[in-house]
Amino acid sequence: MFNRRMKTITLKKFKDKLARNKNPWLFSGAIHSAEKGIVNGEAVMVLDSDKRFVAYGFYSEHSAIAVRLFSWNEEETFGADTFNSRLSCAVAARKRLINPEKTDSFRLLYGEADGLPGYVADIYNGHISLQVNTASAVHYLSMMKDALINIVSPLSIYVRPADELAKKEMIKYQEQCIHGETPDSILIKENGLKISASMKSGQKTGYYFDQRENRRIAAEYASGQDVLDCFCYTGGFSLNAAANGAKRITSVDSSADALVNLKENFRLNGFDAPETTKADIFEYLRERNADSAKHDIVILDPPKLAKSQSAVEQALRAYKDLNMLGLKKVKNNGMFFSFSCSGRVSREDFIKSIAWAAKDAGRTLRITGFLSQSGDHPINPFFPESEYLKGIVGIVE
Fold this sequence. Notes:
By secondary structure, the chain is an alpha/beta fold. It has helices at residues 17-20, 80-97, 135-139, 141-152, 163-169, 212-219, 236-243, 256-268, 281-288, 312-327, 347-361, and strands at 8-11, 25-27, 31-34, 43-47, 53-59, 65-71, 105-110, 119-124, 127-132, 156-161, 176-180, 186-190, 193-197, 226-230, 248-253, 275-278, 295-300, 330-340, 365-372, 390-396.
């Protein structure tokens, strides 16, 4: 047996089923005992109640997710090759998915879905923004860095902890550049459009690549149309709509800095700046519902509204209210795009919230398509939590 030097975690009786079915999350309640001396973030061997091998994983002392599994092959030896092989597979998959003539920036590595829990890596025109989300991600950061340099040869690597997860994992890590020099802003290309992005000051890793395909899809309907883009951030949907000949675009966000970035992105592509408004979207829509102005296309792309399981019910009420307000602003026979990036909100519950919203808005909504995250954010079929972005497109009467 390999990895005999690994310390072990033993599960309670009958608590190995999910793990054997390749779900990568083991919660603390499933653990019977942990070998003494395990370091927070260390790779461990997981055994069932009869001391039989289940999987290898990364141990987290403070999180409810006590072990994040990365291998079910007992003969795999953990080390630098683990990072090199997983990253090589992830890079090969992206080469099949991404057209480099139109897009030079995308998600390179997506945590559990790519077999390296705790790491999210996005590439920005040769520069890498690396998110460390777990104690293990910090513990083995040098191995991750070496793998990125060996396989991707990036111009720079900038590391940031994810605030929400860092608190749960009790990670203390100061964001920093660990390789090369990371500029304050980087000019990237997505769907053939120029975008100024910041790995240092932007949200998450700096930009939201998960909506790339949905922006392209929404833009296909935008020619000659009046578009309302809510939660527009730096203008992904707005910019794609402009490129496809939208007649009028109204872009709304609560961040003044994001709207400045949006106008710069329009300038870079030679487009006239859209009408922009800095506002809370809920308040903006409530105020605008008093007038008769409506739009051919309304897009709602809010931030995560359910950050924990206990917040799901409240989030669903918020989704219902938001979609009700948004549906009221769509012209008859207009298009409606609505999204949820709350992983804890199921697609079924999200659609139910939109159905109730349509009822309360007095509108008929015909859903014509379901949307998800771009392919560079792959979904692990054994791990439904990896599908976090849900969206619908429909026609409103």
